[in-house]
Structure prediction request, 284 residues.
Amino acid sequence: MVVLNQPKTAAEYIQATSRVGRQLDKDPARNKPGLVLVLLNPNRPRDRSHYELFPFWHQTFYRHVEATSCTPFASRALDRGLPGVVVAMARHLHPALTPPSGAMAAEALQQVQDTIAETISQRCIDAGAADEELGEHQPQLVAAQARSLLQEWWKLTQAREATFQYWTHEPGGKGGGLLHTPLDEDPRYCSEGYKHFRTNWSLRDVEPAVPIRLVNFGRQFDDEEERSDAYPQVPFTPQHSADRGGPPEPGAAALRPRRHGRPARLCRGDRWPRLLEHQGQQRS
Prediction:
């Protein structure tokens, strides 16, 4: 890999250069080491500084990673991360909820409901999510959302012939998993109760893929085809003798057609009132 100039952020440099030399094997003959060449610009003071402190900076570059801006307890973060946090807290708070089959322990679930809601609400306050604009509403909303998830979980345990565990592939339990990823295609996860427990492996996971259809991809247009077929132009005829009883005015404004479906414009700027008058008559 060749890095041209020093990137603006240390995180970008670390993320990019760590993509080489990642295949290691116990057999040295099968190892595939990586080589990164950094080409710095001597005319840039920042690049010269990195060159002069190259060994020291690489030994300590993790301390130079810039802090990222984030909004604590944002709505999208709650949608993606709160179900997993609530289930994990419930599983650790009560012994009856700890084993894989403990996902069906409805009574224990009711006992830990208030504790989970209050803990998450206090964490929201400590993280600074309760700013001056929201006041005390944000912690209350987060606590209400946590209670809502626990109530949906409790309703699933009361369903007829309900049998599930925390995760489908977890040994020692029965039935499907309460937690599932957005990409899971099991029909049960489309129901009203299970859809609240879509949980990613991490907050860096992406949403399901969206299909994109390419129209006229790779097709070549010549100028005549593009003007006539792909982007037809509507000619504009200014008022002439049929409307005003005389020959066309010398130097009357004409339209210059423009391509790609854009509206035409006048060649002379002093004819805009005439164009507006003509368009008003057409609409009437």
Summary: The radius of gyration is 33 Å. Residues 230-234, 236-273 have pLDDT under 50 and may be disordered. Residues 161 and 175 are 11 Å apart (CA to CA). The first strand starts at residue 2 and ends at 4.
